[in-house]
Amino acid sequence: MNAAITAIGGFVPTLALTNKDISKMVQTTEDWIEKRTGIKERRIAFESEQATSDLATAAIENLLQCYDVDKTEIEGLVLATATPDHLLAPTASKVCEKSGLINAFGIDVNAACSGFLFAMEMATAMIQSGRYKKILVVGADKMSSIVDYEDRNTCILFGDGAGAILLEPDKEEYGVMKSILRTDGSGTESLLVRAGGSRFPASMRSILHKQHFINQDGAFVFKKAVESMSVVCEEVLKTNDLETENIDWVIPHQANLRIIKAVGQNLNIAMDKVKVNIEKFGNTTSATIPLCLWDFQNDFKIGQNILITTFGAGFSWGATCLKWGVMREKRNTDVSHANNNLLYEMIEN
Questions:
Q1: Strand ranges of the sheet holding 2-11, from the earlier edge strand across to the other edge
Q2: Are residues 114 and 194 in the same domain?
Q3: What are the residues whose beta carbons fall under 8 Å from the beta carbon of 17, sequence distance 6 or more?
Q4: 20 to 30 A Cα–Cα from 310, which one of 122, 183, 192, 327?
Q5: Which CATH number fits the domain that encloses residue 123?
């Protein structure tokens, strides 16, 4: 038995923060940002009451509106996020409540930008065990809540969003193949939010020193990301008895276009096979992979091989392959990317 993706949903906030907007906030230019990152704009949940749980709920609502899924049959929600609504309780609990998942358990997974891949591996194992038949995997982050918009090195990179997939058993050849996941805690200091946890609880000092915002050593993270993603992709292809020519599409973590291109070159995979939407969404951390699946779902055909790879804080990274299978019947083809943002207002009201 395997676990296959049978439905997809996504959500990004309406407000677009453009490079021009950022150039008025910090010392930079539109062209410099695009040249260094590939990003043109990023979506921002600008109201303080709009939390990660709301983004995740909207993505699930989009999935339920688009596909014929009975939410009372969903048995679990694995939510990948680095920006939970609260340190306690789990954000997945609120998402289950807001989404009406009355028969599902909910757990949070935090592996930063690799969170969705780690969560999907966990859910896949649950499906393969035979104990569960329908599990939602969601990647959602409100990165604007931990970004210092006076820090040019980080504020240009991140956006808010959420993506959701439904995993179900598949007895054919479709679904998630073998994955390889890695962690190296020695890289923690190079990419972290220092304060707010048990090691450095919130204090007046931590607030004054802006220790509740992302801090990263960009050059070191860039180098490690390219190296780690390239190596793990080669390893996972070998593990699944695949060659690069067997791969139809690559979905990399959307952190920086230069990283994506470098990994593609190292793997000798043409860029026309690599799915990229960083120019309009930026780095949405746990949401980048499911947002790509959602954004490009019409391009994927039954039987095609997709290579997914990520890298994030921790350091955490990994790769998996999946064979695209049969999706559930569409419930309402009129629910598109364009009117997806209306779902958020509906949920809030």
A1: 2-11, 160-170, 135-142, 76-80, 105-109
A2: no
A3: 41, 42, 43, 44, 159
A4: 327
A5: 3.40.47.10
pLDDT of amino acid 334: 54
The predicted-structure confidence for 49-59, as pLDDT tens digits, reads as follows: 789 999 999 99
Q: Which residue has the tokens 């990023």?
A: 42
pLDDT at 338 over 80: no
| Res 49: pLDDT | 77
Q: What is the mean pLDDT of the chain?
A: 93
Q: Which residues contact 333 (CB under 8 A, 6 or more apart)?
A: 66
Contacts of 218 by beta carbon, 8 Å cutoff, 6+ apart = 153
> For residue 336, what are the domain limits?
2-172+327-348
Catalytic positions are 113, 253, 283
Q: Which helix (H) or strand (E) holds 118?
A: helix 115-128
Q: What is the pTM of this model?
A: 0.93
Q: What is the pLDDT of residue 332?
A: 64
Total domains present in the chain: 2
